[in-house]
Amino acid sequence: MEFSSGRKRVIDELTRGRELIDHLRIMLNGGGGGALEQPLAEGLVDKILDTFNESLSILSSTESDEVSQVPAMNFDGRKSEGSGESCKTSLPKDRRGRYKRRRTSETWTKDTPTLYEDGHAWRKYGQKVILNAQHPRSYLRCTHKYDQGCQASKQVQKIQDDPPLYRTTYHGLHTCKNLFKPFQIIMDSTARDSSLILSFGSSPEPVSSAMEINRSFSSADYFMPPSDHLTAAFSSGADHGDVISSDIYSCTASTHSMETDMMVESLFDSLPEL
DNA sequence: CCGATTTGACCGAA
DNA sequence: TTCGGTCAAATCGG
Questions:
Q1: Is the C-beta atom of A98 closer than 7 angstroms to strand C?
Q2: Helices and strands in chain A: count of H runs, count of E runs
Q3: What is the Cα–Cα distance from A241 to A71, expressed in whole angstroms?
Q4: Which positions fall inside the WRKY domain (predicted)?
Q5: Average pLDDT in the A164-187 region?
Q6: Which backbone phi and psi does A7 adopt, to 5 degrees?
Q7: What sign has the CA pseudo-torsion A97, A140, A224, A230?
């Protein structure tokens, strides 16, 4: 994101927050409010929190490539159960202003022939039919969104049938500490010499979600300067740099995740002698 | 009981 | 208005 546009957005958000606070003050000072205005006030508080969260998010993504340490405040579905009085009509609750569209955060995608096990615990929160697509898209967020404020989420969609192909789109980085399944390095004795299998989790079919790696890659291939595009290529071929496209795993270095870190660490730990 | 999933309604950007 | 992302009540299941 351009710095100037990020700055403008922060100013806009903060300005809006200030106006909302003014509203709230008038509402609270004006007296007479009482139960009637309570839900309205709560809506305002939510909106104010949202503007500040957005600002912090913009600032942290503008000033540094590192993930924001600012945990987004939960807008968990707290309901304003007033005392007694509640309309029991099936009228839906007013959710306006309860959530914002996805923040502009970095995303990266991965296509795999099977559902991709990335070692994290996910919780599905929605599924949508997508126009001109034959398969629905699933929406998942990190299980630890609320207990650890982890903002990571992903979408999964089957994008091809015959050789099945699933596309996983990640948003945000894991700030949680819980890795659901450990990575495994498997020596594959049947493979061409000098290749290893890096497998995720202990799923019944580890190989299908595995990436093959070749020890001929040097560490320089993995440790790129921040904000450069990082392409970690894992070739199963014998030739140096003979990369098979389906074996390429890539993401932007600035968003490179714990998965990537662990992948790289595990990789070099497991290579006997380079 | 409690956390995960399903599913239709709701929200907001385009 | 349409469409895709999110919410949350109902439901599932260990």
A1: yes
A2: 3, 10
A3: 40
A4: 111-174
A5: 69
A6: -60, -45
A7: negative
How much of chain A, in percent, has pLDDT values that exceed 90? 12
Q: Name the residue among A111, A248, A114, A267 with its Cα closest to residue A196.
A: A267
Is the distance between the Cβ of A88 and the closest atom of strand C smaller than 7 Å? Answer: no
Total residue length of chain A: 274
Residue nearest to nucleotide B10 (CA to C1'): A95
pLDDT at A111 over 70: yes
Q: Which residues 210 to 269 of A reach strand C, CB within 7 A?
A: none
pLDDT in tens, A125-141: 999 999 999 999 999 99
Homologous superfamily of domain range A105-179: WRKY domain (2.20.25.80)
Summarised one tens digit per residue, pLDDT across range A2-51 is: 444 555 556 666 666 666 666 666 655 554 445 445 555 655 665 665 56
* CA A207 to C1' C9, whole Å: 40
Residue type, A98: R
CA separation for the pair A240, A141 (Å, rounded): 38
Residue A239: C-alpha distances to residues A37, A84, A216 (Å) = 71, 74, 8
Give percent above pLDDT 70 in chain A.
26
Query: Is the entire prediction scored with pTM above 0.70?
Result: no
Neighbours of A247 (CB within 10 A): 16
Pairing of strands A137-142, A195-200: unpaired
